[in-house]
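Please predict the structure of the following assembly.
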Amino acid sequence: MESFEVLLESSAEAHGHLCPGQVVGVRMAMLGCRLIGLDAPRRHDQIKKLIIYVEMDRCTADAVAHVTGVKLGRRSLKFMDYGIMAATFVNLETGKAFRVVSTEAARSLANSYAPEIADKYPQQLEAYKRMPDSVLFRVQQVKVKINECDLPGPTRYKTSCSRCGQVVRDQREVIQDGAVLCKPCAQESYFTDAAEVTWPDMNWKPENSLKQSRKDARSELL
Amino acid sequence: MLKKIKLEEAVGTQLAHDMTEIRPGEFKGAAFHKGHTVCNEDLCRLQKMGKNHLYVIDLDEDEIHEDQAAAILADALAGDGIVWKNEPREGKIKLLAEKDGLFAVDTAALAAFNMVDEVMCATLHNHTLVKKGELVAATRAIPLIMKRAPIQRAAAIARQNGALLAIRPIRKAKVGLVITGNEVYQGLIEDRFAPILSEKVNALGSEVSEVTYAPDDAELIRKAIRSHLDRGCNLLMLSGGMSVDPDDVTRQGIRSAGAGEMHYGASVLPGAMFLVAYVGDVPLLGVPACGLFHRITVLDLILPRILAGEKIGKAELAFLGHGGLCKDCEECTFPHCPFGKGI
C-alpha cells in the first residue's frame, strides 16, 4: 500500500477536495486492510478477497473506497445507510471481519492535538493526522454473513415481477400474498407517481461518434 | 458480571470491592476491604453505611475487575521516573515521582485517555517541579467490572508517545551570565540582575560559572557570548537590552554570536520581551528588565523546562498565554497559583 500522504493526496483529488473526512477515511481504510491482512487491496490478487460495508455516505466513504479500490458496481462496496462513521472490512478468503468506528471523542480532542490552529476544519484535518489509531478509532471484530446473492461475480438468480414484468436480479424481489413483485410494485421504492414519458432526440445513439472516430483513424492512415 | 444479593444473604461471601465509609468531617476510607468475608457482626455497620445489597462477582472471559484495570492503566501511564505499587485502594492507584525533577504530562494524550469511557487519570499540572516520592497522578477504572478491550485501548492511548507521565531530571548546567547596559558597565548604577539570576539558577541546582558585563554594543555582547561558549558554558542568560529602544542591541549581539534559532517575545506578563535563542544546542535566555522588579516572571516558567532538556520554540512561548498573566498579588504564592498553569 502507498504511504498515507500519497493516498490522502490522490483521495482528495478523486473526491474533489481535501477535508477532515478524507483523513479519517484514508486512515480507516489503511487500518481496516491491515486488520484483515491485506497490504495491497487494489492489486489483482487481493482485490477479489475484499468486501467493505460503509455505514455513511459522507466524504469518509469516498476515501475508504478510493484507498481500497472497492466499487459499488463490483459489489465489493456495500452501502449500509446507518448514518454512522464506520466501515466493516471483510476478508472473503479468511472470513475475518473488523468494524472500524470513528470515535466521537476525536472531534472533541482536535483542539488538544492541534492547539495552534483556530479554525474548526483545518484544526480537525491536522489533528486527525496527528492522533494515533487508538484515539481515532474503536475496532470490533464482527461476523458478517454474506448471502450468495450479494457476492461479487455473475448474476446467480433472476426472476420477473408478476405485475409489471420487470426482471429482478439477485433475489431483490418481494413476495406478497404469494406473488413475486419488484420493489416498486410492492410499494417499497424511493419514488412515487411513476408515469412513462417520451423525450427529445429519442433515437440518439453513440454510433455517429464511432463512425467519426473511424473516419479519423482512416484519414490518419491515408 | 455482577450479581446483586441482599445483605442478610451475604454472610460468608467475599466483598467484591473496598467499601468506602464517609463520616462527615471525621473519616473517609475503606471500612471493609475487597476480599473480606462478611460475617454477622458486619451487617449492622454495613446497614449504617446505607448498604442493603452487596455485589458478588462472576467475571466473564472478556471482563476484568477494577483493580486489574487500574494496574493495566497505571502501567501504561507511568514513564521514566514514575513509580506505583500494585496495591489499589478503593480501586485507585497512585503514581509517584521516583526522583526529583520536572513532571511532564502529555496533555493531548491525557485528554484522549480520559475520553475513553470508564477510565480516569488526574495529574498535577504539566511542568511542575516535584520531589522524590511526591504524588503526581492517580488513576482508576470507574465501574467495579468492565470489558477488557476499552481498558486496553486506554492503555494504548497512554502509550502513544512512549508514556503519558514522566519525571524529567533537572540537569546541572554551567551557566554564563552576560549583563548588558551602558549604565551598569560604566558603573553609573549597581547591577542587581546578577544576584537575582544567580539565585534562580542556584535554586534549581545549577551554578553560575562567570558573570560578564558588556555595554550596549552588539560586537562586545557577541564577544562576551562567544567567550562563555568557549569556556564550556552550556546555558547562557543575558539581561538588559531586550526592549525596543535604539540602544537595545542585545538581540543583534546574540544573532551575530551564531544563534541559528531565535524567538523573541513570550505570551507572558511579566516577561513579554523574553527571548530564547540557540547557538548549536546551547540555549540563550534573554531576560527583560521585568526580571528586576517582579519576583516571578516568565523565566521561572521556562528555566526549569530548559534545564529538563526541553527545546523551547515559538509554540512553547505562545502556548504560555493561557494562564500566563500574573495577578501581581501582594503576597506571592507561586508556584501555588494559576500563573503558568494553563498548558
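The beta strands of chain A are 50-54, 77-79, 86-91, 97-102, 137-141, 158-160, 167-169, 174-176, 179-181. The mean pLDDT of chain A is 93.
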